[in-house]
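Quick one: structure tokens for this chain, please?
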Amino acid sequence: MKLGTLITIHSILLFLFGLGFLLVPSWMLSVYDTSTNSTGLITARVFGIGNIQLSIIMWSSRDDVGSKILKTLVLLLFLGNALAFLLALQAQISGVFNVLGWTNVALYLLFAFGYGYFQLVLKGDRDAS
């Protein structure tokens, strides 16, 4: 898979999840068999906005192969997904979410591996597009 393809897939997923958490946070949480109070709903909406913002940055940068911004973005996406994987795994093992929560664990792990591959294996100015 090319880096641009990975970023495209990831940015689309982030945008869709972002819209869900912004517009219907209670429903998004209910899918995972969890709920929250009004503070949690506001936090979920802010999380949705952050996902939408990140998806737009990713979409706009996906074809800038070799640029410093894209290299930095790939590093940050690797680190962010690796940390999110650990948090999602902890939440899943603790029983915070239903079985659907394992999809989050898997997605964070896959994206961490993907960005890790492009960060560590394709260093330098080689074409990773």
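Residues 3-120 form one domain.
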